[in-house]
Each structure stands twice: as structure tokens, then as C-alpha cells.
Amino acid sequence: MGFWERMARIDRRIIYLFIAVVVIVPILLQITLPVTVSPPVRMAYETIDALPESSVVMISIDYDAASMPELQPMLRAILHHCFSKNLRVLMIAQWALGVPLGIEALESVAKEYGKKYGVDYVNLGFRPGGMAQMVGMGKEIRDYFLTDYRGTPIDSLPMMRHIHNYQDIALLVGLEAGATGDMWVIYVGGRYRQDIILGVTAVIAPDAYPYLQAGQIKGLIGGLKGASEYEYLVGKPGLGMAGMTAQSCAHILIILFIIIGNIGYFMIRRRK
Amino acid sequence: MEVLGVWIAAGLTLCIFSFLYRDNPFYKFAEHLYVGFSAGYWLVYTWEYTIKGMLIDPIRLQHAYSVLIPGFFGVLMLSRWFPRIAWLSRISISFTVGIGAGLALTGQIHGFILPQLKATLLPLTSINNFLIVFGVITTLFYFFFSRERKGVTRVFARIGIVYIMVAFGAAFGYTVMARISLLIGRFLFLFRDWLHIIKV
Description:
The complex is a heterodimer of chains A (272) and B (200). Chain A has 272 residues and is an alpha/beta fold.
């Protein structure tokens, strides 16, 4: 058996080992590479940056722990940006399992800026309803959320007194691990002309680019790379930037594997 | 309590990672635990958010007896368990299909088809615009199956395949990025929150 035949039958665990090494070493050495900000992320940043003080930004947590490594750094960076600009944050969740993730980030970042619950930010939590709820909130949020996630009536919260529907919301930020982002764009963006930014996992980023090209969204933050770019823009390095060197090293290794695999394929075919 | 949670999460992460070597009892334990917890969670979720939140609480707290109507239709869905009266569930299904179709039809036209169509009708004043318009046309040619592909249609369909392959490549590249990101997330958790080797 020649070299290329042996390579074609290589134990998959050896490949796993290589991947583990190129991911672990940069993390342990905490090497950071320069960050280049891509236009879609800059568009998202500039959209939030241009909002007048006290504007309401609705952030929808549409992911769970499975997508936390990509979307949680994104959420934290966006919250830093919003609170540093004195914007008011209204959080909701279309995924029930996203609620605790939203609470964790919202409470910790708000504390850093001395923001007060009910005045500067509110967390409505989760209610079932999906598409019907998204459309219905265009009429009145209270039709779906009479209380916040803690059971406090939302009319008792000062920030909520003048917030009734999308007309009172300057920007919607959807953090998406599935098809909920499409629903926000199609049903809320299309029907109510709501300005929308999407922060998405890398898997669904290619599906979101047509919305950006068509001007249906004002910015797009894709995957861990997008999160690291946003962290860089707001000057708050976090888990996004910490993971990007490992990401780049893993990509280089995978490219090498693909090249070696193709060379091996053609070599074996030529011999046969 | 938080420390205990981190240790449990780290232990379960290692149990799942052990599958990369081979299937083993540790992996099986973590997998079954996950399935059990998920089933329990969704049971509580359905009670708390759907039955209690949307049916019992509105009646009890706001005396909104109108919710009994959708509640009745919900009960009809359960008739599928009994073959003799299973047909009753069709009433509820037709209702949800009607609502879904109505919302989707208007929403898709307003929020997807028209904006995307508008974004394709571009003046050919730049290379990017040309690539978009040409890509849409050639890809549509690829999906045109009513006539045999000959001559120009064959060439266009082949170019369409190239566009589709580029899209698949981009999607695969992003998928690789996403999966590696998840691995990075787990390692960051293990080294930062569990072992405290790194500080981020």
C-alpha cells in the first residue's frame, strides 16, 4: 500500500487530534490576530451608532445553549454598544431556552453601566406564538406580553409606558440560530417597515446575505468572526476575539486537509 | 451551587467528547441524560407556557372566557388517538393550516418575493450588478425543465450550475466555521470556567 492509499485510510481520530491541537494551543497561548471589520458588521455597528439617545432597541434572543459560543459574545458586544450610547433595551425571546442566556448577558452588562431595570432596560421573556405573535405585536405588545419575565405587569415599568408596538421601537436586533430571523425580516420588516439587524450563526449566514443585498436588513453579523468584529468595534474584547485565532488555525488545517485529500484522490486514480 | 453546575457541565462535555474515540458508557450516559432532561423540560414548558399561560391564567386572572374556543379546538386535536372520532381533529388542523397559509401568503409576497425581485432588477453599471443579474438568469435556466437543453440554454444552465456550486461552497465553508466555533466555545468553557487556566 502506497503513501496516498495509507492517507486515504487514515484513522479519523488522528484528524480529530490535529483539529484539537490547533484549537487548544492558540486558546492556551492566548494569541490574538489583527481583526479586519467586514462591511456587513460595520453597517450593523453604524446603524446602532446613529440612533438618537433613549431610542428603544428590541433584542430578540432566538437561540439556545447550542449556539451560545457564536451568539452570546455577539449579544454582549451589542449590549455594550447600546448601553454606552444610552439606548434603551427591550429584550424578548422567541426561543424559550434563550431566556436565561439573555438574562445573564443583559443583567451583567447593564450592571457595568449602572443601568436600572424598568427604566433603561426591560426583559419580556418568552411567549409562544411565533409568526402570529410577531405580526400581532405590530398592533400592541400587551396582547402577548402583559408581564415581563419575572411576572411584573409591564404597565408598572416606566420604560414600557410609551412602548406599544413597532412604531415605538427604533431598531430590532434578531440573534438567530434558526429560521426565526427570516420571520422577523419577512413579517415584521415587510409589513411594518421595521429596521432590522440580524446576528446569526455561521451556518445560516449565507441565507441572510440576500436580505442584506436587498436592503431588507441594515446589517449582518455572522458567526464567531462577526462577533469578534463587533467586539473590536465597541472596544470590548471578549470570547469572540479570544476564539478567532483558534478558528483561523483550524481553517488553515482544514484547507490543508482538503488539498491533501484532493492530491491523494488524483494520485490514486492515476495509478489505477 | 455555580461551581457544582460548572463541574457537572464540564463532566458531561468530556463524556460527549469521549465519543470521538469510540462509543462508550460515559457517552451513552450523557446522551440518555440529555434525552430525559429534554423530555421533562418540554413537558414543563408545554404546561407553563401553553396550557397554564394561554388557557388557565387568562380565564382565572382576566376572566377571558373566549380562550375556551381555541382551547376546545386544541382538545379536538387529541381525537387523533381514537380512530372512530379521529376525523374531528381535521377541523382544528384546517383552522391552523388556513391561518398559516393566509399569513405566509401575504407575508412572503410582501416581505420576500417582491423585495428580492426588486433587488435583482439592477442597472448593469457595475461588475457586481452584472454578476447578480447574470447569476439569477443562469440559475433560473438550470431549473427550467420544460424543454430539452440545447445550444444557448445548455450553456446558460451549465453556468447556472457553477453559481449553485459556489453557493454550496460558501454554505459549506460557513458550516465548517460554525462547527469549529462550537468546539472553541467548549474549550473556552473548559479552560476558563472550569480549570481557570485562561482569563478572557
